[in-house]
Amino acid sequence: MKVGIFLGHKILALALKKYLSSLASGIHEVHEVIEDEDSSQGLDVIVTDYPTLVSGKLSSLSPEAKVLLLDTGLSMVKRRIALLFFKVRGILQPEASPKLFLKALERIYKGDLWLDHATTEELLSFSRDGHLTSDIRGLTKREREVIPLVCKGYKNKEIAATLGISLPTVKALLSKVFRKFSVSSRSQLQAAVMGSDILDRL
User: Fold this and answer.
1) pLDDT digit string (tens) for 106-146?
2) Quick one: CA dihedral 163, 167, 171, 176, positive or negative?
3) CATH architecture assignment, domain 136-201
């Protein structure tokens, strides 16, 4: 197994690389992934954090690698975003032991999904109890396009560039979407949408 470490915190990345390299396990190579270098070639699993994940850099560096996300106290909404939008194959809790860390890497490498019991229960519970009754038939085509981008963490300028529309148009669309979902912020919209089947229906 060839593992890549791609974290926003360079000191932690180097420490984790050294730690994994010292283990006698199925890990054959450990690399710190650096942008614009060949360190990401042929990786089986990449260990990353949420800010790096949502930056979109991983998809261009090593699109075939499976991703293990280090949970640094993420909200449930962010964990759902990671799983649904960024094809994360596992989420490792902060209190996980070294033994569980290795087990997670091995399971993800084999193609399994790794979620601890508490996270699984939390996601299932929110899916059952957080159902949103809003009807997406009331949304325009543009509004439907904006919602997933907001959930991915895109800023207004990024949404405008992605959809090829002006910044004032983005602001107007967001205002209408907020009103239709009875929310007043992006985080509230994320919480509402991620707790329902709306993204699947969009």
Assistant:
1) 999 998 989 877 677 766 665 544 444 444 556 788 888 89
2) negative
3) Orthogonal Bundle (1.10)
Which residues have a Cβ under 8 Å from the Cβ of 142 and sit 6 or more positions away? 163, 165, 169, 173
Residue type at position 78: K
Buried b (16+ CB within 10 A) or exposed e, 13-37: beebbeebeeeeeebeebbbbeeee
- What are the residue ranges spanned by the domains of the chain? 2-128, 136-201
Alpha-carbon 57 to chain mean position: 12
CATH topology of domain 2-128: Rossmann fold (3.40.50)
CB atoms near residue 9 (< 10 Å): 13
Q: Say which residue the tokens 């949970």 belong to.
A: 71
β-bridge pairing 29-32 and 45-48: unpaired
